[in-house]
Amino acid sequence: MPELPEVETVRRGLERFVVGRPMRLVEVMGTRTVRRHPAEWLLTQLPGRVVRRVTRRGKYLVLGLDDEVDLVLHLRMSGQLRARTPSSGPRLAHTKLVVRLDGADELHFVDPRTFGEAFISAGRGASGRPIELARLGLDPVLDGVDPEALAALSVSRSRPIKVLLTDQQLIAGIGNVYADEICFRAGLLPYRGAGELTDPEIERLAAAITSTLGEAIEYGGSTLRDERYCDLFGAPGRFQSHHFVYGRAGQRCARCGTDVVGIRLAGRSSCYCPSCQC
DNA sequence: AAGCACACCTGCTAGC
DNA sequence: TGCTAGCAGGTGTGCT
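C-alpha cells for the assembled complex are given below, as produced in the milestone run.
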C-alpha cells in the first residue's frame, strides 16, 4: 500500500519520465478510476498539454500541466504508475489509464483493486494546491515536523498515537506500515493516548517521523510480501528489510529478541515490541 | 464535534 | 489437489 515514501519515489520517476513532455492521447478503461467527474474530461482536456511539474502532497500526486490545469492521482491500495516504452511488451493486467506521450512512450496507471483514482482538479486554492487536497494536514517531508507542531496536534487528544499518525487531516502521508515503524523507532506503544505524551516523548516521535520517512525514501520505499509496489520503472523498494515490527507479529524483535506482538487497533493490524516500546 | 464502523475491491493464503 | 473463507488497507460516507 503506497504511502509517502513510495509515492515520493514514484514522483521522482515521473520527474524524469514525463516533465517537459506533451500528453498526446488518453485512454480510460473501466468506470471506477475516474469517478469525480466524467471520464471524457481526461480525453478532451489532457491531450496537447505539457507536464510542467510533478508535486506530491501526502499520498497524492499532482501533475501540473499547461494553463494551470492539475491532474491529480492517488494510488490507494494497489495502484501503480508505470513507464511503458515500445519494448515493454503487452499491457499489464488491470491497466486502467493510459497516457501516450511524445514518441511511443506511455504512462500507465495499473490498479487491480480499483481503489485508486485520477481526476482533473477543479482549481487551485490560496496555497496554489488543488482545492480537493485542502483538507490534508501537514506533509512531514515538505513542511517538516517540529515537536511544537506535533504537540499542538496531539494536545487534548485521547486518540491513540497511531490513529493520530494516520489521520491525513492532521499529518498527510503516513499509513499503517510507517505508523508502526515510526512508533517503534520512537519507542512508544501505538495505542497510547496522544494527549498524554511527555515533551521528550513528543520530541522522539517527531524525530522518528522525520528519520523513518527520510530513510524509507532513500531506500525507494517498501515492497511487502503480499503487495507489489514498484517504482515507475518496475524496481521494487528496498526499505522492507529495515522494518522492525510491521508484519512481524510472532517473530523476534530484531533489536532485543522479544516476540513482536500483533493487535488490532482502530480496525487495523498493528505490531509492536513490548520490550522496546513503552 | 468527534470518533467509529463500514463500503469499496481483488489477490493471496491458511485451513479444510 | 482443490476449494473457500478470511484478510489486507486508504479514504469517503454515514451513523452514533
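Residues 32, 77-78, 94, 112-115, 159, 163, 225-226, 228, 266-267 of chain A lie near DNA strand B (CB under 10 Å from a C1'). Strands of chain A lie at 25-28, 51-57, 60-65, 70-74, 80-84, 95-100, 106-110, 117-120, 261-265, 268-272. Further analysis is deferred to the final report.
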